[in-house]
Amino acid sequence: MKATQAHATLPHVPEFIGWLATELDSKTLFKHEYVDRRTGAKWSCDSLYGAYQAYAWNHPGNARLSFNPGVDAASNSNALQVLRDDLLAAGSDDDLMLQGALDVMAWGGVTARNAEWLKANKVGLGRQVQEVKAALLKKDRNAPILRDKTLRFNAGMTKIYSLICPDFVIYDSRVAAGLGWLVVRYCQAKGLVQVPEGLNFPWAGAKEGATTAAPKNRNPSVGTLRFKRLRSGSHHARWNLNANWVLSQVACHVLNAKNPFRVGATPAQTLRAIEQALFMIGYDLGTVAAA
Length: 291
Prior knowledge:
Elements: H1 3-8, H2 13-23, E1 32-35, E2 42-45, H3 48-53, H4 73-90, H5 94-108, H6 112-120, H7 125-137, H8 144-147, H9 157-164, H10 173-190, H11 234-251, H12 267-281
Antiparallel strand pairs: 1-2
């Protein structure tokens, strides 16, 4: 049995999928608000779909790939499609994969150390990315390449694999925070005092200085409902697979066939839209969910 299939049978995982599929259009459970630190503007949503409708990511343009800068979901969708096509065309070619990967990092605002690592590990980069892709497509977290101690899998690399693997979500600190936030609401609805093992999606802190005046909270823990910290490498890859399994099941669940996330959308588009909703919510969970 593949590891992801084993995860799917853990206590409360199927129940959470059914609960979220049923509540996906709730107008009471998923209200959230915060202040965007960059603009000072207040952001809010009254539902998960509302969070998706308010999606915003200020991405740069790319002269090589001929897409313009933008902010909204449509602009980002276009940029991601172009970046995806470029990565797929790169195949195992190290030069092309390096260029494509660097462009993805620029889109995602995670260039810094990722660019340094990509350039330093250019030789064999194309082959390595293809091997990780193959393991992810098999949904087997125990594949040797995913257990290798040298595996680089972080908030930057998850974006690459999300593009080259069909129906694979980005699992970064914001999406992880948003998903944990949903799990807390499930636990509260079911009267649970501890986060079930299969739903303990690890969180990661925002990239900001220790002296930041108003730090963003991305730890969804509340009271006795505690979440583990996310570690880069195999741990990150494993939980990316688990998150992807859960959200992909929600995205095509029979209980939400008429949900606005799905009307006129492919399963892949629905999954991406749910991911983007979590990305927006996870920017800052505020003081209510503080550890």
